[in-house]
Structure formats: structure tokens, C-alpha cells
Amino acid sequence: MTRQDRSIRTGDVLLVEDTPSLQMLYRTVLRRAGYPPLCANTGREALEHFAEHLPRVVLLDLMLPDTDGFSVMSAMLRQSPETRVIVISANGSISNAVEATRRGAHDFLVKPLGDLRLVSAVANALSASRRRAGRAPLANRDMMAVGDSVFLGRSPAIRRLHQQADAVANSLSPAFILGESGTGKCACAEMIHARSPRAARKLVVLNCRGQVASDIETALFGKDVPDGPPVCGALAQAQGSTLYLENPQDLPLPLQERLLKILDSGEYTPIGGGAAQPLDIRLICAAPRDPRADGLTEDLFYQLFVVGLHMPALRERSADIALLAQHLLGRIAQQERKNFTHLSEDALDMLARQTWPGNLRELANVLRQAVVLHRGPVLTAALLEMPPHSPPDPTCVAPPEEMLAGLTMAEIERRVIEAAIARHGSSVPQAARELDIAPSTIYRKRDAWEALKG
């Protein structure tokens, strides 16, 4: 063992292998080589060890008794992108290796493992991890909070969210996540699913926003196709798993009523006919604010909103901005192949003074722009270009009076609606909130306008 290898601490290497004989063999080989590993038998146990120790290298068997190894790897890399994951598989197919690499694996090993190959893979991964840590002296992974990057921090708001998410993960009750755009609602749902008893199956995601009624109906409930296989909807895909339903308030009322009936009965009828089957899904929904204000019926609200979680806006957790920025900078620099190591104090001060209406997404956008346009290693305030957040021009709310002369009421209405949609980046629900009308009204009017074109 070299002098450098003596710096290996307990927790730097995590071995995830459910076969007792193989776990004992790999552990013995690694310990003799100077790389004593922590060991886990299941995906859940692996994620718990990972959250506590943030290991530099993970040896991960893809076939685990409680979950899919790729899901475990994804959860780990979301929490700590610098960790090197070595995937172990009894299936040495090219497709498995390609998939592992695509998902971020550092190396791919095929069973049975030779002692030399195993030790060499871990040594190389530790070396790569050490080089990465050397380039990022301020990126102290021990400061990271448990969970996905959106959960990094020590602010009261994020600590409360983390406790609630942990409690929700162990329940099967429907949960509803509220939060502004860019706060990480989807990442929160992914984390809850990854820590739940349903983690072995893939999370099914469906966003109801911006879709015409027929498309969202097919996406949610499925559809019979004449002379072809039926289209499987999200409800069927999520059997035995979790369905993350974003913006359910945008569902047309008939579809809300249909969904409510299914949830009330606890049964659904598969597309193509057949007997009704028990509905075995866990529902997690999300919306920017109270969905009843945007069209969700009271009855469906009480079915979906059993446990509520609030994703804090970035301005509500300003104490976390420095940690989040350092973490995001490391991830972005790695993606862009740039040698940025940390942010200067003046850059952190500048970021802390912003209001961040776009939240984490806006913060990542600002950092990425600086990384793309400049060289490192230090990101200073001079390299940051902050987006303007001036209040909207009141003359843009509606066309000036002189532009309305000679127009019919229908034409005026169309101009006002289209202007509102443009102001909100093509978001119909946000335009509907500004105009105090239901999103379905706008969709119906747009369909009518398209029909007139034909």
C-alpha cells in the first residue's frame, strides 16, 4: 500500500453485493489491498450508508433483492456527482455496459471478478476521485445534506422539507408537493420514490400541462388502437410503483371526474377490456400553488392532497446559496469539461443578494453561462452575468387602446390571450392565472382558432 493509499478512511469505499459469499470474498480482497469497504446487502441499506458517509467509490451489483441497481446509482450520483461508481454485473453484454456508462458509471466489471481486476478498478477510481477533489478544494462533500442536490443545505426550510420527505417515503398515502417553478419538485418526488418500498420499480412521470384533452387522456388512461396493440397509460404503467402527476389541476373536468372515480373505487379496467383490477399505485402530485385556485375540483383535491410538502423558494433559503452554488459549479464544470474549482467570496456575495425568481434552475443557468464563456479555476463576480429582473412593462399587459379600434370583441380577446401566453413563455396555465380564467377555456379557444384556419 502506498503512502497515498494510507489516507483511505472507513466509508471511502462502499461495496453493495447481496450474495453473502461474494460479499465476503470482495471485502477480504479489498481489505488486504488497503481499501476496507463498508458493505450493504440491499439498495435501501446502500443508500443509507451512502447518505451517511458519501463514499468516494461505490462497487454496485446491478441485481439487488429490493431494487434495480441503476436506480440506486442514479440516486447516488444525483446526491454526489463526484462519486465514482463501479458497476458489477453477471451479464457482460455490450448493452449493459453502454447503459451503465450512459448513466454515469465510472467502470463496468463482469463476474466472476479476478482479485487483480477488482483491486485495480478500485485503485483507479480512487485516484480519479482524488484528482477531482484536488481540483475542488472548497467542495467539501461532508457539508452536503442527505438527499438530492435540491436538499443540500442547513436552512430551517430545507431541514423541515427533508424530515417530511423521509416520513412520506415510508408511507403509501398520496402526497402533494407545492412550489414555484425551478425549486425541484420532480427531484423531490424522485427522492421519495427512491427511498420508498416501491423503489424497485421505475417512477412514472406525467405532466398534465400544455397538452390537448385527447392526448392527456391517452397518456393517463391509455387507449385502444384499431388493428394494433393498445396504448398503455400512466395508471397502468405505475402499477406496483409510483405515479408522479404534475399539474393535475390542468386536467379537463371530465378527466378529473374519471380519475376520481378510479381512485374512489380502487380499481381500474385495463385497456382492451377484461375484468377490473385493483389499483396498486402510489400517487405524488405537484403544482406551483394551491391547485384548487387553478381548476382542481374539491373532491379530487381531497383525494390527492393527503400529505402536503412545500418546496422552499431559493429566496427562502438564502443561507444555502453558497453550498448550492459550489455544488452546482462542480457538476457543471464536469459536464462542460472546464477547470472551475470554486467561487470567490465576491461571487458568493453577489449570488446571495439576488432574488432568484427562477430558483435553482436560474442559479444553475447563471453558473453554466459563466463556465461556458470563461476559464477557471476561480469563478469571480466579474464573470457572472446576472439576468435583469425588472418589473413588466404595464403597456404590455394589453394592446394600447388605439390598436383596438375597429376590432371585434372576439379579436380583442384573442390578442389579449395570445399576449398573455407570450409573456409567460408559452405557459397556458400561467397566462390563465393572470387573466383569471380556467386553462381549459384558453385551450378550447385555441382549438377554435385553429379550426377557423382550416
Structural summary, described in words:
There is one protein chain. The chain is built from 18 helices and 14 strands. It has 454 residues and is α/β, with parallel strands linked by helices. Strands 2-1-3-4-5 form a five-stranded parallel sheet, with helices on both faces. The protein has a five-stranded parallel sheet with strand order 7-8-11-6-12. Strand 4 (84-89), helix 4 and strand 5 form a beta-alpha-beta unit. Helix 6 packs across helix 7 (185-194) and helix 16 (409-423) packs across helix 17. It is globular. The N and C termini lie far apart (76 Å). 35% of the residues are buried.
Secondary-structure map with pairings?
Layout: E1 13-16, H1 20-32, E2 38-40, H2 43-53, E3 57-61, H3 69-79, E4 84-89, H4 94-102, E5 107-110, H5 115-135, H6 156-169, E6 175-178, H7 185-194, E7 204-207, H8 213-221, H9 234-237, E8 242-246, H10 253-265, E9 267-268, E10 277-278, E11 282-287, H11 298-304, E12 307-310, H12 321-336, E13 342-343, H13 345-352, H14 359-373, E14 378-379, H15 401-404, H16 409-423, H17 428-435, H18 439-453
Parallel strand pairs: 1-2, 1-3, 3-4, 4-5, 6-11, 6-12, 7-8, 8-11, 13-14
Antiparallel strand pairs: 9-10
Any idea of the CATH class of the largest domain? Alpha Beta
How much β-strand is present in the residues? 5-15%
Dominant shape? globular
Number of helices: 18
Annotated CATH architecture of the largest domain: 3-Layer(aba) Sandwich
CATH superfamily of the largest domain: P-loop containing nucleotide triphosphate hydrolases
Detail the poorly predicted runs. Answer: 1-6, 131-148, 390-403
Class computed from helices, strands and strand pairing: alpha/beta
Strand order of the largest sheet: 2-1-3-4-5
Rounded mean pLDDT score? 80
- First-last Cα distance: 76 Å
**How many independent structural domains?**
4
CATH topology of the largest domain: Rossmann fold
Report the C-alpha radius of gyration, rounded: 25 Å
Tell me the helix content: 40-55%
User: Main beta sheet: strand number and arrangement?
Assistant: 5 strands, parallel
Number of strands: 14
